[in-house]
Amino acid sequence: MFDRRWTSGLTLALWLLSFSALHAEEEEAGANQLMFVPPPVEGVISLAVYDSKGKLVRVLKKAAPIESFKSGLNGLYIDWDGNDAQGKTVPGGKFFARGVLIGDVKVEGVAFHLNDWVHGSDNSRIRKIFSATLLSELRPVVLAGASQLGLVTFERNGTRSKLNSLTFSPQTIKAAGSNILAFDNARFALIDPTTGAEVSQQSIPDVRDADAFENRILVLTGDQIKYQINDKPIDLRPPADNLFRCAVLTSSIVVATKQAKIWKLDGQQFSEVDPGETGQLLDLSAGTSDSIWLLVKTATASVLKQASPAGQTLREIVLPPELQTVTRLSASRNEDALLLISDNDAIQRVIGVRFQVANQGKSVWIKWFDRTLVPFRFFDVREGKVVPTDARTDSPPVFVKPANNPMENTRQATFQLTIYADETGAWVASVDGLPLFQVCETKNINQTRWISDGANGMRVYVSDGSVVEEYHLTGLENLFRFDAGSFD
């Protein structure tokens, strides 16, 4: 994902000897001005004001580079206006300023969990997959919901495009040449998948299914069949009520009911096709060489079957147990490949399989695409694995033993570190609330978890509700406390 080191590029040993070279004009310290000399280590500084009981009153700097402070002959200084974090004037009393210099600490992005659709180079956080289809050259396209609904196109090698938003909210997509046929129950549109722009659209009530190929578009609506060739409508009489699925083949069209009864158009009439399979039809799709793929749920298992327009069985595959939740499919028109879509309450999964070879009369298929999305409200880390949960779990502070103070060569007290999130992302903080350094810039974080990882490391997990990000923090011994004065 990425690495980050919290070093400033300015050697403190040098500027401690030459404050006047950094700032020619030295200002006199005021009543509410803090002056200090931090440890001579490269890094960034977090600094805060505390009351006499050690409670944090105001953060003055967090992970600030050395050059962001004013400097004088006797050290660095910073002004405090006497207000607390809410902008209110603090009551009278004694106050202390303390800081931490963050040295060579490394933040490494490790992994994304519970969502294979999210990656580091794209800000669109996919939260739900509604539909998927296959373009030519095994390029999957998914209809996905993030902050908005849109299309994401994948190349054959797995690289993906950005999410292209849509002007309406379709429920299903199918490949239509180089375009995508997208439809809901009130209209359908041809969409350019690279831009999300509509090529054409029509409003039709009660759309149940649709398909398109070359110059032909087929729509099931109510108990009617709307079939167009070159935008010219053709009147067809439905062969049965409650038609459920349809497909445009190379030579004809087919329609089907949920009971897996299938008809093929011959001229102006439909003739019944016997696929040799009984059960509940879940989906069908046009395949290669004028074939049709059926997904049928029988009494014992879900079965994929490839048949000719005459009903002759070409291939038959009983789905393995882990794929018995598949409910939708999309077949390639020019390769022996399928995209299978599984969607239940526990997981959403899109799997691409491709025919490789026939072995002893059986088809051998290989998996070339597999992405999952696990819907979750909260998460936990159990035995090193991120799992979804219904309740939020808190993390205890992580204890880190820091290195000796280089100014005094004395052992520092153990740090207790936690993680907090704000509008800028996630931060490591001391247990008293002082932010030390930033872990990530993820927006809208709604849960964080963290665990110790070795003597001076942490594993940090953050979630925005769509994915859990994991980070590895090392070098935490390079944290150096220092006092920055007191005043009444």
Labels describing this entry:
488 residues; mainly beta; Neuraminidase; 2 domains; five-stranded antiparallel β-sheet; four-stranded antiparallel β-sheet; 2 helices; 42 strands; elongated
Protein architecture, described:
This protein has 488 residues and is mainly beta. It folds into 2 domains: 3-109 and 377-487, no CATH class; 123-373, TolB, C-terminal domain (Neuraminidase, 6 Propeller). It is built from 2 helices and 42 strands. The strands form 11 sheets. A 5-stranded antiparallel β-sheet has the order 1-8-41-40-39, with no helix packed on it. A 4-stranded antiparallel β-sheet has the order 4-3-7-42, with no helix packed on it. Strand 13 and strand 14 form a beta hairpin. The longest helix has 6 residues, at 12-17. 36% of the residues are buried.
Q: Over all CA atoms, what is the radius of gyration?
A: 32 Å
For the terminal residues, how far apart are their CA atoms? 47 Å
Low-confidence stretches: 7-30
What is the CATH topology classification name of the largest domain?
A: Neuraminidase
Label the structural class: mainly beta
Looking at how many chains there are and whether they match, the oligomeric state comes to single chain
Give a quick precis of the structure.
This protein is mainly β and 488 residues long.
In terms of topology, how is this protein built?
Layout (H helix, E strand, L loop, with lengths): L2 E3 L6 H6 L1 H4 L10 E4 L7 E8 L4 E10 L4 E3 L2 E5 L15 E8 L3 E8 L14 E8 L3 E7 L3 E5 L10 E2 L6 E5 L2 E5 L3 E5 L6 E6 L3 E7 L2 E6 L2 E6 L2 E5 L8 E4 L4 E4 L5 E5 L2 E5 L6 E7 L5 E6 L4 E6 L5 E6 L7 E6 L5 E7 L4 E12 L2 E12 L4 E5 L2 E5 L8 E3 L14 E8 L2 E6 L4 E6 L6 E6 L5 E6 L4 E7 L4 E9 L1
Antiparallel strand pairs: 1-8, 2-6, 3-4, 3-7, 5-6, 7-42, 8-41, 9-10, 10-11, 11-12, 13-14, 14-15, 15-16, 17-18, 18-19, 19-20, 21-22, 22-23, 23-24, 25-26, 26-27, 27-28, 29-30, 30-31, 31-32, 33-34, 35-36, 36-37, 37-38, 39-40, 40-41
